[in-house]
């Protein structure tokens, strides 16, 4: 390909206009990916990229080839820094939705990866290599950009221009998802040995609660000798049973639950004092190293369960399968250090990995979604619709939610609020105040008739359909109004 030497005029800073000698090559359309791969593969010192969108969905192809080229560059000693835009496609949510898969993949492979902040959109598609080569243009790393769209991009050789771009790029604020670095330690063995799955299969729901309580007490006292008294038993283990059942249940704990926990290696020994209604457990040390942002080195030996789990009484609201499923999501994301999106090809994969029945796991996710503890993430450009994406949320105070719901109800006419809330409930979102608010606003904007029509279309989808989503309902409304 012929390289033309031109004078490139570029405004880098608002008040600076200058002429820069540069060699420029057209790499538009089908020339883009081969040219970028070649430059990354030949990089010797550093690569700095600011990219608006990477459409990675876990599949082999040119997008993964580009990403893997950066990872290989890192392995051979090249300093690789990437900043991704964090605003979502369409602006529905102000979080990391569109680039989460790519972010997690890079972070898992020790790439120095960041998001920008939410104050400005980082719409650039620019890569600076070895402080002398610049690749920029309109091309996203997505299937549409690389195979369908009419895109224009150039490759520029200029140390002076590269320096100016790098100075500009380094001004972008760099953010990362906040990892959970403190809380109740759940050790790695709990997941590796599929202990949660074993307790579920034996229907040892109290055993599950008892172990999480032991972990809570270890966190508070930092002692491997755990004392569980009558008050603990009633509050954290027998919360769903009448007080009269306490003495009878103490016997069942010893004969069934504690023996199983000892067999699985998560408690070392136990003693019962029936007169005082006290259980004394000895457990292995639960020293959980904080999740590392840099890959396997220094990675977590388990997960941290937020104290809000007990403080907001979620141990009394969630089923055992939902509790285990939430812990699984924490483990899959290294306490959120990889972002909060868990992407996997099928629920069957997680079912086998953690020893949890597929049906049980499916219902657990539906329950977590109902309580707004996870969100099902849907990208309408998705190449593999069978991919399952779940994003976990923090535990929250249910009383605060109820106050917000009452406030919304009091500021909305009864018919509108009732329709909005009932529709949210049918979509398994009765505890998501953002969804209910969006439905109220949609009804006011588009009218009751149009809203009911869109809701009818959505509600025909099966419960596990990726399109049985509030955002898709709003999309249908917008399309209907345009037509």
- Specify the overall morphology: globular
CATH superfamily label of the largest domain: Endonuclease Chain A
The oligomeric state of the chains shown is single chain
Unreliable stretches: 1-18, 89-96, 288-300, 378-385
- Main sheet specs: 8 strands, mixed
Q: In total, how many domains does the architecture comprise?
A: 3
What proportion of the residues form beta strands (DSSP E)? 15-25%
Structural class from helices and strands?
Answer: alpha+beta
Total number of helical segments? 20
Mean of all residue-level pLDDT scores: 83
Radius of gyration based on Cα positions: 27 Å
End-to-end distance, in Å?
A: 47 Å
CATH class of the largest domain: Alpha Beta
Helix content: 40-55%
CATH fold type of the largest domain: Endonuclease, Chain A
Order of adjacent strands in the largest pleated sheet: 1-2-8-7-6-3-4-5
Query: What is the number of beta strands?
Result: 16
- CATH architecture descriptor text of the largest domain: 2-Layer Sandwich
């Amino acid at each position: 390909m012929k390289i033309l030497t031109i004078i490139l005029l570029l405004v880098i800073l608002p008040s600076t206009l200058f002429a820069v000698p540069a060699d420029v090559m057209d790499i538009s359309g089908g020339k883009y990916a081969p040219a970028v791969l070649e430059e990354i593969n030949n990089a010797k010192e550093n690569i700095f990229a600011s990219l608006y969108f990477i459409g990675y969905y876990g599949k082999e192809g040119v997008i993964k080839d580009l990403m893997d080229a950066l990872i290989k560059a890192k392995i051979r000693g090249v300093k690789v820094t990437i900043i991704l835009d964090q605003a979502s496609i369409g602006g529905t949510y102000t979080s990391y939705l569109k680039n989460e898969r790519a972010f997690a993949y890079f972070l898992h492979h020790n790439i120095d990866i960041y998001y920008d902040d939410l104050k400005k959109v980082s719409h650039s598609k620019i890569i600076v290599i070895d402080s002398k080569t610049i690749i920029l243009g309109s091309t996203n790393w997505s299937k549409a950009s690389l195979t369908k769209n009419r895109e224009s991009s150039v490759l520029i050789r200029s140390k002076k221009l590269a320096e100016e771009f790098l100075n500009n790029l380094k001004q972008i604020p760099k953010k990362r998802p906040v990892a959970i670095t403190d809380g109740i330690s759940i050790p790695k063995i709990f997941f590796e040995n599929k202990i949660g799955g074993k307790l579920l299969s034996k229907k040892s729901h109290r055993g599950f609660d008892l172990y999480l309580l032991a972990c809570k007490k270890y966190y508070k006292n930092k002692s491997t000798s755990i004392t569980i008294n009558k008050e603990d038993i009633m509050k954290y283990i027998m919360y769903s049973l009448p007080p009269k059942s306490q003495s009878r249940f103490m016997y069942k704990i010893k004969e069934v639950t504690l023996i199983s926990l000892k067999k699985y290696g998560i408690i070392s020994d136990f003693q019962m004092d029936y007169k005082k209604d006290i259980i004394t457990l000895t457990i292995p040390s639960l020293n959980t190293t904080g999740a590392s942002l840099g890959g396997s080195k220094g990675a977590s030996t388990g997960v941290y369960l937020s104290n809000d789990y007990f403080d907001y009484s979620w141990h009394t609201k969630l089923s055992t399968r939902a509790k285990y499923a939430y812990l699984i999501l924490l483990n899959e994301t290294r306490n959120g250090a990889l972002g909060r999106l868990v992407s996997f090809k099928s629920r069957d994969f997680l079912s086998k990995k953690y020893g949890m029945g597929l049906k049980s796991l499916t219902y657990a996710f539906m329950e977590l979604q109902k309580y707004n503890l996870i969100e099902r993430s849907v990208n309408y450009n998705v190449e593999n619709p069978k991919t399952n994406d779940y994003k976990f949320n923090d535990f929250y105070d249910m009383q605060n939610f109820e106050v917000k719901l009452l406030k919304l109800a009091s500021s909305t006419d009864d018919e509108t609020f009732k329709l909005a809330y009932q529709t949210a409930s049918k979509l398994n979102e009765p505890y998501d105040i953002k969804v209910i608010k969006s439905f109220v606003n949609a009804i006011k904007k588009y009218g009751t008739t149009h809203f009911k029509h869109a809701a009818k279309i959505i509600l025909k989808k099966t419960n596990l359909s990726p399109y049985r989503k509030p955002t898709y309902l709003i999309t249908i409304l917008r399309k209907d109004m345009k037509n």
